[in-house]
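Curious: can you check?
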Amino acid sequence: MPTTVDNYIGAKFVAPSTGNYLNVENPANGEVVGTVGLSSAKDVDTAVAAADAAFSSWSKMTIKARAAIMMNFHSLIEKNADELADLIVMENGKNKTEALADVAKGNETVEYACSLPQLAQGDSLKVSGAVTCVDRRDPLGVVASIVPFNFPLMVPMWTVPIALVMGNTVVLKPSEKVPLTMHRVATLFEEAGFPPGVFNMVQGTREAVEAIIDHPTVKAVTFVGSSPVAKIVSNRCRNLDKRCTALGGAKNHLVALPDCEVEGAASDICVSFAGCGGQRCMAASVLILDGEQDGLLNSLIEKASKVEPGSKPGQMGPVIDSASYQKVISYIEAAEKNGAKILLDGRGWKKDEGNWIGPTIILHKSPKDKTMTDEVFGPVLSIYVASSWEEAIEIENANPFGNAASVYTTNGGNAEWFTSRFRAAMLGINIGIPVPREPFSFGGLYGTKSKYGDLDITGDAAMEFFSNRIKITSKWPVQRTAASKRSHGEMKDAANFAGQM
């Protein structure tokens, strides 16, 4: 029986005012597993009003009290991990191991949020003889997060737990393609003890997103998705003088040097480009070889060719929908038409039902092929043999994205040469998916298509994003009796403007 996914407002599931719903399909077989509401600006206004009403009492609680409730939530995620992973497999297409990792990584950020009482206490310093400066972090108010389909639990958990423990109330807009996981998680927020209105969800598509961004009560917006939409979201927020961080797409490059550990590198590269169906912003997209490396190439092709379709550990699931499938196919065909050699062809995975495409490895003659430069977002690895380190860096630096890059080598000096020259924000050495773990923050490079707006999206950057720093400078008069006055040779503070001209 398909699940009906409504809005979650004030700790209640509420049907959208439009009465309209969209089918949610299992990408493995096309089966309709749910329907998700299509909300209007009116629904957004209702959710924001609930969040705003809850803000006063929630923000007045101590950060320790808020973190204690979040600890309950952390425990519930662990307790229900298997059920949540099954939902992710059904609506997203990941294999079970990947789905469990989605849950575990999301809960790792919840765990970080539970530590915020020890991290967000502010600073205090006596800056002159009688003047002290302190700062504190105040919550913003109602904040919103707009998240993509590729990690149904992890990406919402990048922002929601930190925003809540910092004292904000939240409106989340899940992807309409994968709403079932967070539909279940909403009940866990309630079970954990979060008061009504502190956490809310609005389902829908573009109309809901635009209404969230434009709502005057929403003080900050986070977005994760494609680069064109990330830029639109960021610019729209900027025009409203609204705080925003918007993470876009990626074109991540790996460079393999002849001294790399072949079997380890081949396994890691295979997981990086084919894991999660290649539908992650940290997936390998281009492998640049420093000269011919038949051993590495043959090992990689062998490992990728053994990957089987399915949802069991070690298998690879489908891409999310038919549009994504057609997009990936078009990039393979374009490369083939341009003279590239298909070393491993995943098009043979096509079935009558579902969006199946297998690991595909392409050897290019030109670094300017579309498949070498565009974000494909599927299990496709483009390979190019570079004539020098300088050419490899030139290719990586020329791409307009700036999310991640990695080098495979057993030489520390070689690794340093590349990591000091890559044009990306998250770098790896012998790691094909160089995701920073908490307490480190996640985000691409400013000035590229991978990142728009303010700050990173997790870790200490999120703590900064979801709070206002309030600075207090104080000087208290000392009232002493004549008998108690003593001269201690105090030095005059020439930089102190308080009380003097």
The chain has a mean pLDDT of 95. The chain is about 40% helix and 20% strand. The longest strand covers residues 131-139.
